[in-house]
Amino acid sequence: MWEHEYMSETALASEAIWTVLRDLDNWARWDTSMEVVELLGAFEVGSKVSMTPIGQEPIVSEITGIRENEYYADRTEFGGVVLDFSHTLERLADGGTRVVHRLEITGPEADTLGAELGPAITEDFPEAMAALLRRLPACEPGPVNDRGPRTR
């Protein structure tokens, strides 16, 4: 298994961030690694999402978790690995939010491919996180405390 998470804290409320996260059709406006993202069906667990990484062919992921204003997760399977991505919004005591973007790579080839794929996939997490927070209309995100990556 290979795992990596990147987290930031912002003065924004989780509900404001959730409005951007749940709008999958517009993810390419802030997700710096995506050319096109399209929700194929309803925004619910089990629905598919077509994602086209910049310069690559489309891949299809499945939504595996949704908790309103708190959590979104999807899974992509290919080449002997399973990529589980998640975004967790944790409310802070001061009204702000800790945003955690996580990738976990499992499967028969995870030990070999994880160390190769993982860093390439997660290298843009800081830029994507900053762009996500800037995406909120008419909101000043306030100070952002980047906690940085944790990789195992």
Can you tell me about this structure?
The chain has 152 residues and is an alpha+beta fold. It has a single domain, classed as Alpha-D-Glucose-1,6-Bisphosphate, Chain A, domain 4 (2-Layer Sandwich). Helix content is 20%, strand content 44%. The chain contains three helices and eight strands. It has helices at residues 14-21, 110-122, 125-134; strands at 2-10, 34-40, 48-53, 59-67, 71-78, 81-91, 97-106, 145-151. The protein has an eight-stranded antiparallel β-sheet, with helices on one face. A hairpin with a 5-residue loop joins strand 6 and strand 7. It is globular.
Short account of what is shown:
With 152 residues, the protein is α+β, with helices and mostly antiparallel strands. The protein has three helices and eight strands, in the order βαββββββααβ.
How many DSSP E strands?
8
What's the tally of helices? 3
Overall geometry = globular
What CATH calls the topology is Alpha-D-Glucose-1,6-Bisphosphate, Chain A, domain 4
Label the CATH architecture: 2-Layer Sandwich
Oligomer: single chain
Mean pLDDT: 89
List the main descriptive attributes of the protein structure presented here:
152 residues; alpha+beta; Alpha-D-Glucose-1,6-Bisphosphate, Chain A, domain 4; eight-stranded antiparallel beta sheet; 8 strands; START-like_dom_sf; Polyketide_cyclase/dehydratase; Polyketide cyclase/dehydrase/lipid transport protein
